[in-house]
């Protein structure tokens, strides 16, 4: 029996957008960001979702790739636990591996093949982000074409 995918920050973000994401591989992001810088950049995706109305799937994907690249440049606060940092790097990596023409299904299935350790890291990142930055305020989401 196939284990259902965990709904974490990574999955929720991808499903919310419905058809978009990316950045380049993780591991090189700074570890000295302030919590304010980190939270501002992390939550910028949610504040930008409303402006994606009427954009193509490819444009929405490019916007989210840009967000992930910017988030990687900002990096993480130095007090972020190692497991949460692993989840951050995993998100950046997984987003970076998506094709520019990714479908809604690609995003929904993004964490389907995660190992138990990767799922734990993703959950740790979600918990840290929520505890540190609060739950993001979600705008009314635009419909993004699935093809």
Topology overview:
Blueprint: H1 9-17, H2 35-48, H3 57-74, H4 82-96, H5 104-108, H6 116-133
Number of helices: 6
Task: List how many beta strands DSSP finds.
Answer: 0
Question: What is the H/E order?
Answer: HHHHHH
Structural class estimated from helices and strands = mainly alpha
Spans of 5+ residues with little confidence (pLDDT < 50)?
1-26
The helical percent reads 40-55%
Q: Average pLDDT, to the nearest integer?
A: 75
Rg result: 14 Å
Distance between the termini: 30 Å
Determine the strand fraction and express it as a percent band. Answer: under 5%
Question: What's the gist of this structure?
Answer:
The chain has 6 helices and no strands. It has 147 residues and is mainly alpha-helical.
